[in-house]
Amino acid sequence: MAGSPSKWDSGDEKRKNNHVPETRASLISIKRLYVLLLAAAPLLLPYSCTKDPIREEKKKPVDTTHVQTYKRGIFIINEGNFNWGNASVTYIDSTGNTVIQDIFSRANSRNLGDVAQSMTISGSLGYLVINNSNRIEVVNLDDFKVVKTITGLQSPRYLHVIDSGKAYATNLQNSITILDLATNSVKGTIKAGGWTENMIPYGNYVLVTSIGKFSEPSQLRKAQLFVIDTRTDAIIDSIESGKEPIGLVIDKKQKVWVLCSGGYDNYEPATLMRVNPELRIVEKTFTFPNPDNPPSRLCINPGGDTLYFLRGGVYQMPVTAADLPAEPLIPAAGRNLYGLSIHPVTGRIYVSDVKDYVRDGAAFQYTVTGEMVKEYPTGRIPGSFCFSQTAAR
Questions:
Q1: pLDDT tens digits for 349-392?
Q2: Is 58 a member of any domain?
């Protein structure tokens, strides 16, 4: 998945060398990122880069296509190359499938920043997490203009809204940031002892994956799932997981699924774990063959009964399955598949191709049976998707 970090992600390593990072499709990122980061730790904080210089493409003319609102469509978050400040957002207008590139720059007359990690929507606002720029851009979905820029963050990764007044943001710096949504500012932190990644709600709690300390090798990292009481903003428990837990979803029976890459250095086989969040125990573990081809980008369908992940191609797995799927639903077919999301209403599959991390990428929409519906052009390194709350297709 996830992926980079941007300061850590999977496409990272490769991206770092020629672009930016994010999980192994994304993960490929984590591992690549790691090798780069650890080697360059003295120079940059969490990572460094470069094998060959990045070849900048000639800028295309700004698309002047006009839309009335950004509340009825799909956002593709393009990470951009690490340290190049060329992150962007591509928008697909659901009312006519119109594609508009770089909508942030068009609306705000400035660049989005360095490594766009993720986007979350809450009400009429969108929260764009910019990992290497250490900030979150809060935009109005009517016109995509910036309402507030949240600073004071350290390598932020993902944002999860707790309620109308509070959100959590994970990061690479051994903590979870508490955000005040009334003022769109940093309210406090929750010490975590390791870099934190994905979040999922469960009752009055939020479960958070923790990779361990970024500076340590996989052998020493304590990979776990933190349980946070949102009423007190405190970690009250933890559940041990496989190395490098990078994916997290919850199914219709309230079972939590955790995808673990096994470590950036293939320390152990990748695993898919099913966790009982009530008892806080691991109930089942699936082990992937071939550590050189780890999975990434764990997703689940709207009905909560089917899992999806990347492992070269896109794999589909019922939550009741006794074994891991042997063949992909959507083959990679020579593409460098990197980002994966499932539409929260239609259940359609959206996957991105980062190509060589230098050229602009592409995104594809598929039906739940694996038939391609449409291809969309994107910016550089399309890493994730975000769906407007009113988008129905």
A1: 999 999 999 999 999 999 999 999 999 999 999 999 999 965 54
A2: no
Closest CA to 292 of 38, 5, 27: 27
In a domain, 225, yes or no: yes
For residue 392, tell me if it sits in a domain.
Answer: no
The rounded Cα 257 to chain-centroid distance in angstroms is: 16
Q: What are phi and psi of 348, to 5 degrees?
A: -70, 155
Query: What pTM did the predictor assign?
Result: 0.85
- Structural domain count, the chain: 1
- For residue 390, give both structure tokens: 């009113």
Q: Burial of 232 by CB count in 10 Å (0-12 exposed, 13-18 middle, 19+ buried)? A: exposed
Q: In terms of residue numbers, what domain contains 222?
A: 12-53+68-387
Q: Within a domain: residue 146? A: yes
pLDDT in tens, 86-97: 999 999 998 777
Between the alpha carbon of residue 136 and those of residues 82, 198, 387, the distances in Å are: 17, 16, 18
